[in-house]
Amino acid sequence: MGVVASHLGVFGKGFLVSLEISGCTFLLAGLLGLLLAVCRISPVVPLRLFGRLYVSAVRSVPLLVLLILFVFGLPEVGLVYSLFWTVVTAMGLYWAAFFSEAIRSGIRAVPRGQIEAGRALGLTFGQVLRLIVLPQAVRCIIQPLASLLIAVTLNSSLAAAVGVTQELTGQTQLLDQQYAQPLFTFGAAAACYVAFTLAIGRLAAALERRLVVLR
Asked: Where does 2-214 sit in CATH, by number?
């Protein structure tokens, strides 16, 4: 236990890097997922086909395989970025497929009559989406998005497998190699992940209750 107490700063810095990876990935995946969801429901057939193919293809590839492909494959074709942003890009492209499905499920929960009413008033597809559909869809996807944020954070630990040793799991591995006390080092890392997931769950529940009151 002493190794944990004497290296709290290491765990703290590692956890902050994990949160940075998760936060950047969440924002990127959210934006791309929204675009994919719009493609999936677009009246333009090529866009619908693209969205469907993207989601099907990406969800069929393990995240670790995609990370390895980006980290070790992109330099082979002359695309060299920082390791941090390479990991964020790969994870963002991967999780965008899941965000797309969550957002699309929220959109489909909006009563079709409201969409038809908007079109009857002369609103364009984009206006119906922005003014009628998305504001209501957000209320339906609070919990799915919270679950995705938790999944993104937990899977950020895979960054250690491709060389991002600054994040929590990577720092824990380095400490374990030095002190050979996996029960305490990885137990402390697990406690950090549990604390974060519980906080996200409580925040999502509070936000969902708040939105229910505003309906």
From this structure: 1.10.3720.10
